[in-house]
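Predict the 3D structure for this chain.
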Amino acid sequence: MLVDSPRLTPRDRTRWGELERYDAVFAADRSWGWRERKAHETIRTFAADGQCYASTSWGKDSTCVAHLVATSGVELPLVYVRMRRYESPECLQVRDAFLSEYGDRVDYREYWVEPGIRWWQDEDDFVDRRGQHTAGQFDEAEHELGPRHITGIRAEESRMRDMVVARWGESGPGACRPIARWTAVQVFAYLYRHDLPVHPAYAMSCGGRYDRRWLRVSPIGGITQAHRGRADWERTYYPDICGR
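Done. Predicted structure below.
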């Protein structure tokens, strides 16, 4: 379910409709049964080993993981860290749509942080040898809930994440990655399969110029992922926020 946004152009909507037909084919694949069971078992095993929480940005991967956590049979804190001034505005629409259906299955919590120089670096810079984030945005959550967390990190996304997954797989000492070996194609198919809310950023493709697999729900107005044309994309779809 694509969350609507006035930022989407007619060409964007047409292209998304084409991609949804593609998602529908993959969502019907017979392998989903065992793939979902494996993800659920990974989450349950990690949770059984001690206190932990799941993190979300309300992007495609973390929404997928939020749903896997909510349907795993284990009630866990679901943490969203909000960034003042730079938050992608549609994240709250995704949040509200998800919680309206699954809010009773998670212990949802929000924390606020102030942006600084560290926020504009690639988050992979802050992945240590155990596969845990050390950037500081989850400091408050970790103080209350402990450092063990469940995340939507996938090997396909970057060289660093691929190395982490190769070393620790779906679960390491401090981090659980239930969709670590899923592709972006599979993530979109899962969202379609379960009629989950999808952030409209993934449909903001300039009518297909941008590949949705590499678009991310990140703070607006920064320089992250500039190598993929992120800055140009932001100026196209969020000129009001970039201007501020």
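The longest strand covers residues 77-83.
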